[in-house]
Amino acid sequence: MSKVIIMDHPLIQHKIGIMRRKTTSTKEFRDLVSEVAMLICYEATRELPLADIEIETPLVKTIAHEIAGKKLCIVPILRAGLHMADGILNLIPNAKVGHIGLYRNEETLEPVEYFCKLPVDADEREIFVVDPMLATGGSASAAITLLKNKGISKIHFLCLIAAPEGVKRLTELHPDVDVYIGALDERLNEHGYILPGLGDAGDRIYGTK
Ligand code: PRP
Ligand code: URA
């Protein structure tokens, strides 16, 4: 069963509140995507294993801790996931980055794949798939299926805003994937947009439309 973690941290709720406003500028929106992604990443990496290492402080020898286990890889779903990845790289600068390009067919709402480039050793890494919006769940599910078909097994999914419909679809299709959500909204509208949501994340990040 997937673990579904809805972040209830005041900083995240405050920042998402600003992102929802239609008057928020492109620059401010973009900065907030990356800030909220960092805060969610803090929780999503809570269970990373640690190893003890001996170090010397200026005063004595001591045991410190360093992240051990599988190396990490961030996989943004293009294009809106890119800015989440930039934020997360501030915290995990040594992670590699893969890219999956998907867009939703506006009529069927089903994802169409147009790009996939992963690190050569992606199947040996722990993967964090990132996309601001989990609406019908089609894009996230398709991206994760694509990764699994390439032999990748340890996958987490991080988003800023989710609809219940998307959470259901993703967790039913991929019960082995833990899902980290900034805010869980009410529902989808008839065009597959999240309500209340924040509109089209890609358009708001890049100032298109
Ligand atoms: C948005 C969003 C997700 C997808 C979510 O991308 O960034 O990838 O929709 O919807 P779903 O859960 O119903 O699949 P979009 O297809 O608009 O592409 P873009 O990032 O290029 O704007
Ligand atoms: N994609 C978005 O960017 N926003 C939504 O509300 C749904 C899908």
Automatic annotation (TrEMBL):
Activity control note: Allosterically activated by GTP.
Phosphoribosyltransferase domain location: 7-208
Enzyme nomenclature, EC number: 2.4.2.9
Reaction catalyzed: UMP + diphosphate = 5-phospho-alpha-D-ribose 1-diphosphate + uracil
UniProt-listed InterPro entries: PRTase-like, PRTase_dom, Upp_B, UPRT, UPRTase/APRTase
UniProt pathway annotation: Pyrimidine metabolism; UMP biosynthesis via salvage pathway; UMP from uracil: step 1/1
One cellular-component annotation, GO: cytoplasm
Record-linked Pfam families: UPRTase
Molecular functions per Gene Ontology: GTP binding; magnesium ion binding; uracil phosphoribosyltransferase activity
Cofactor(s) required, per the database record: Mg(2+)
UniProt keyword list: Allosteric enzyme, Glycosyltransferase, GTP-binding, Magnesium, Nucleotide-binding, Transferase
Enzyme class: transferase
Binding site for 5-phospho-alpha-D-ribose 1-diphosphate: R79, R104, D131, P132, M133, L134, A135, T136, G137, G138, S139, D200
One GO BP annotation of this record: UMP salvage
Cofactor details (free text): Binds 1 Mg(2+) ion per subunit. The magnesium is bound as Mg-PRPP.
Residue numbers binding uracil: I194, G199, D200, A201
Family under the similarity heading: Belongs to the UPRTase family.
Function: Catalyzes the conversion of uracil and 5-phospho-alpha-D-ribose 1-diphosphate (PRPP) to UMP and diphosphate.
Protein name as annotated: Uracil phosphoribosyltransferase
Species of the source: Anaerocolumna sedimenticola
Lineage: Bacteria, Bacillati, Bacillota, Clostridia, Lachnospirales
UniProt gene name: upp
